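Narrative of activities, Objective 1.

The group set out to show that a structural description can be obtained from nothing but a protein's sequence at a throughput compatible with the screening campaign. Below is one input-output pair from the validation batch, recorded exactly as produced.
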Amino acid sequence: MSKTFTSKKIKIVIAEDHTILREGLKALLSSNPDFEIVGEAKDGTEAIRSVNNLRPDIILMDLSMPKMSGMSAIVEIKKRYPETKILVLTIHDIEEYVLETLRAGADGYVLKDANHEELLLAIKTVLAGKSYLSPDISKKVIHGYLEGKKGLKTDSSWDTLTQREREVLKLIAEGNKNKEIADILFISAKTVEKHRANLMKKLDVHNVQSLTAFAIERGLISG
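Output recorded for this entry:
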């Protein structure tokens, strides 16, 4: 049954790596008597842990975070706790990000330049069991279909990568070694090495520098 604003407080977790933005969201939402901020997370791994320990009704999820990205965290959270609502709050407004995020299981997508009223509407909408897209995002997605686009179904090398391979790519580009990546993603170092080999083969690159350059080009990390 969907949550309403007439019973107990709505439990919220905020996953955002920028402290000032996270604190701002916390202050803004805490002023609403219907909400209770029960946890915060600075990366995808912490977001998963917070949902596991706190069982919030909804998590506000940034996409670009260190270690495990918001995208991978969405997949893991929905796999383990499908009843938890996930509202993405991000700067990314291109169709590719939107479609990929929704396919990962997100319930809503809001841009960070949204005002308080829109954020509140988005939270209420996803808690009611419906999907929410910022108006500008909806226009872009609809325009993409009208123009005959296929969304993410392209022939680029990026689209040949699995979600796990993209996560490993991001962590490699951030300078993590195989053992560190294995610990972050809860997989074996041997599996990480296999993903690394697949990445180099699919992207036709032969060193970490080239992988890092590709990750920067795709916006996985800052240059």
